Amino acid sequence: MNALVVYESQFGNTEQVALAIAGALRAFGQAQAVRVDPAHPVELQGVDMLVVGGPTQSWGVTSGIQAFLATIPPKQLRSLSVACFDTRLRQPRLLTGSAAGVMAKNLQKMGVSPLVPAESFLVSGKEGPLISGELDRAAAWAQTLGKAAK
Q1: Cα–Cα 20 to 30 A to 135, which of 14, 22, 33, 60?
Q2: CATH number of the 2-149 domain
Q3: Order of strands, edge to edge, in the sheet holding 49-55?
């Protein structure tokens, strides 16, 4: 398996989660985490699994992640195992929204079925830090992804 974790991070929390996910996915093959950067398009050639994540902002997805997903042809997305995650405040999802949930719904509209349900990793404030245990939970979620992709 060749996994790519693509993320956007503003305060470093989502980056920490992305790195934990990529690290755990290495138990199943190659995996790397890359930050979304419009100046450097992400290459998906040879990728089997795409994991996309970002912070929840205004109940939704950041513009960088939206732009990244918009550049991928739906046919190419449908050929990948795809999963979504976000970071959000530790409050009920009804109050905070979920970038991962929005991404998963948008992918389903394009005919892409995420490998597992979207997942949120929690922060204690707007700038973080991550709640204790969230990096371990991210690694465990990645293990679930790796097993589901087999």
Answers
A1: 60
A2: 3.40.50.360
A3: 30-35, 2-7, 49-55, 81-89, 119-123
